[in-house]
Structure formats: C-alpha cells, structure tokens
Design brief:
Elements (H helix, E strand, L loop, with lengths): L6 E3 L7 E3 L2 H4 L8 H22 L6 E2 L20 E2 L1 H11 L2 E6 L1 H6 L5 E9 L5 E10 L7 H20 L39 H14 L5 H12 L13 H14 L7
Helix pairs in contact: 3-5, 6-8
Length: about 270
C-alpha cells in the first residue's frame, strides 16, 4: 500500500482539488493550493501510521531482542537503535495489507558477493490484483550459528520478507531488520547484596541518557509544555506515581509504555 498521493485538478465548480497522485502532480497545481495538498498528504500518512500501530503489539510483532538493548549515547541527537520488526510482525502486516510474499533466489546478489557459501533470497510482496507493492533482500551464511541448511534458507527468507515490508510501508524510520530476534539472552547478573541499598539490576533499569532521549522526543511533539506536564504524562501512561526525573526509579515496563505512547504522539494523538 503506497502512502503517495497525487493531485488532480477538480472542475471549477468543485472549489477544491481532488487528491489522487501526489508525486506526479503536486508540483503542477497553483502555488496557492500546494499547502492544502501537502497538509492532506501529512494527514493521510499520520492516520495510516496511527492505524498501523493500533494493530501492532510490542514484544509480539516488534521489539528489542535480548542482548540487543540500545547503548546510551552522549548526544541525544545521535542515531539510536530502532526496534526490530519481527517475522511475526512482517507476517501480520502482510495479512493486514492483503499481500502474498513470493520468494526467489537472489543470484545477482550472490554473484556480486563473489559466490560465497551463503543463501541470498528476494521477497516480492504481491497484492490480490497482481500488483507488486514491495521488494526486499536477505542473506544468511551457510552453517551460521550451526543452523541446518533448511533453517538457513528460512532465515534468509525471513530477512527478505521483513526488508520488503519495511520498504513497502516506508517504516525504516521506525523499525530495522538488522537486529536478530534469535539472539541468545544475556547471562543473568549476579545476585545483589541483600544488605546493599535496593536497586534494580542493570537489565531491569534504564540509563539517564535513555531517559533524556525519551524526554527530548516528547518535547518535540509537545512544544510549550513543561516538566510538570511531563510528570503528569508519564504517571498517566504508567498508572503509578514516582520521580520521573530519576532514571533509577523507572522500570523497563515504564520505559516501554511511555516509548510507545510517544511514538503514537508522532502519529498525532496523545494517550490521555
């Protein structure tokens, strides 16, 4: 499903423009109409993504696999890891959009890489009318992680499908296919000293940098709001009262819930 829209000029008596093909005709309308055209495109994209996220579930269709948790960045404007779109998410979105994934060997890529011992696949997403909505590529080395050949093929197909879905729905700013959902979990941390001050283990708490990055994203969606508004926002989303300025008071569940709420804010709706 393409989010592109195009503009066809309506009869003079209609008093407005009909939106049908953005890319092909947006630059053809009078300048006085262009703000409305671009606003319509933004609104359609916002509503589509809002609907999409109302269907996806964190931890089921997408998330951060164990061992792939993002590291803190000094600069909140630096690139940070995005959640990975899981195979279950790609399958769900294909069903939701009415797409059938069709796989084939990616011989061109395999030859370009020098014919290494790996499996290269192409996934094409085909609609019920035969139209192609997206294409993705994936590869897995033969014997990687001691996988059998059949499992290697399946993993290459999974990578190609996830890549195709992300491209078809223009979701690369929200998801990645790079993190491996089959990553083994980290070894558990040693037990804390019972006489030491109570504190969550490292795997169950967030860093100050992560919290600052989340606050920065929230501020970008809520210009003019202040710290008391942020506190009320977090407490509403997490349904508990705590010092939201102290990263040690946050749990992973709190952080994930507020992260999802802020992501929905980007689609234009506050969670309260």
């Amino acid at each position: 499903m393409s989010t592109d829209i195009a503009v066809a000029t309506a009869p003079a008596h209609a008093g407005s423009s009909l939106l049908t093909d953005f890319r092909g005709a947006a630059m053809m309308v009078p300048a006085s109409q262009m703000p409305a055209v671009f606003a319509e495109f933004d609104e359609r994209r916002r509503l589509f993504r809002k609907w999409l996220f109302s269907k996806l579930k964190r931890g089921v269709h997408y998330g951060v696999p164990p061992g792939c948790e993002p590291r803190g960045n000094v600069d909140p404007e630096q690139w940070v890891n995005k959640p990975s779109l899981y195979k279950s998410g790609a399958d769900f979105l294909c069903e939701l959009m009415g797409w059938t994934p069709k796989f084939s060997n990616d011989t061109e890529t395999w030859e370009m890489l020098g014919k290494p011992p790996c499996v290269c696949m192409v996934c094409v997403l085909v609609g019920s009318d035969g139209r192609i909505f997206g294409e993705g590529r994936g590869a897995r080395s033969r014997g990687e992680k001691k996988m059998a050949d059949n499992a290697t093929i399946k993993m290459a197909e999974k990578c190609a499908k996830v890549d195709a879905v992300i491209h078809a729905l223009s979701l690369s700013d929200l998801f990645t296919q790079d993190m491996d959902e089959d990553q083994p979990a980290r070894k558990p941390n040693p037990k804390a000293d019972p006489n030491a001050p109570e504190q969550l283990p490292r795997t169950a708490r967030i860093t100050g940098t992560q919290l600052q990055q989340l606050v920065t994203k929230w501020k970008a969606n809520n210009e003019g709001l202040q710290l008391p508004d942020w506190t009320a926002y977090v407490q509403r989303v997490t349904a508990r009262e705590f010092n939201v300025r102290n990263a040690n008071m946050w749990t992973i569940e709190d952080f994930d819930a507020v992260t999802d709420a802020v992501r929905l804010d980007e689609c234009g709706e506050l969670p309260y």
